[in-house]
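re the bet — no i am not wrong, look at it urself. input seq straight from the record:
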Amino acid sequence: MVKAAILGATGYAGAELVRLLSGHPEAELVYPASHSYAGKRFSDIYPGMKGVCDMVLREDDINSAAEEADVVFMSLPAGLASALVTKDVLDKAVVIDLGADFRLHDRNVYQEWYRTEHHSPDLLKQAVYGLPEIHREAIKGRRLIANPGCYTTCSIMTLYPLLKNSLVETDSIIIDAKSGTSGAGRGEKLTSLFCEVNESIKPYGVASHRHTPEIEQELSEAAGKGIVLQFTPHLVPMNRGILSVCYAHLAAGVTEDDVKKAYSMYDGEPFVRMTDTLPETRFVKGTNLVDISYRIDRRTGNIIAMGAIDNLVKGAAGQAVQNMNIAFGLEETEGLPKGAGCPF
């Protein structure tokens, strides 16, 4: 059994990790921690988990967690993980960071976009970007795994085959993405109140969202050259889900067969579904799935590639468990939900 610790266990992503690990046949949660709720039972904070996880929450102490666990999941605000993770911690436990501290290869880019200091730049080269469908081999046996963001997971996976195979003009990419309100976290914020989000939709982080450099980094690696793209997120009044609608101009001479062949890279991937129908967030809700589809507009020469995920599962906790499974040599799908319930 893989012994697991979770720092930040009472945030939405952390709580989803508790739920998933509680049903994992090869993992045991031994150290659930929360600075805000230390000393309380997890099921007192999330009554829906009563009888499933009644463990008393510990303090967010990474050194104690690493002593007791084989893997430490970190679901903390930006800037904290880079100050807490050390070589000594990594010698004792695998660290899977659900935050952004180890996702970007360049410390200066991180500090520019996140407006906070990165405290351990020496560890950036040890970190692997934990998107299994693209970096599976690199994840195996790695001690520090940077779990991708929710918008980034959906957008990168939707566009990656096109960039990897040079099928689109790299200066034409626009990503129009929508997220449910859980993406803003569990903290009390005026902009997340029911009356502020219900019956409305709004863009935010326009030309400045922190996930932009992460998407550009991974797609630049796919294309073999630097890419700058337009990314605009929106908040919609639903609890869960990410929908990314991505636009790009097809390169000269590209055919529909070329596009179909490119997306065949996902054939056999347990959590990727290429769909003939247009993706909807309700069809992936509660699962670790990514639904991807595309349409080619011959009139404009553009391709519209679309992806949908659950932001708390494939966009956070589910992908973290998927990374744990790979890192410890377990069956990759172990403990992860695939089919959405009905009604949706």
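see?? The chain has a mean pLDDT of 96. told u. also The longest helix spans residues 150-164. so pay up
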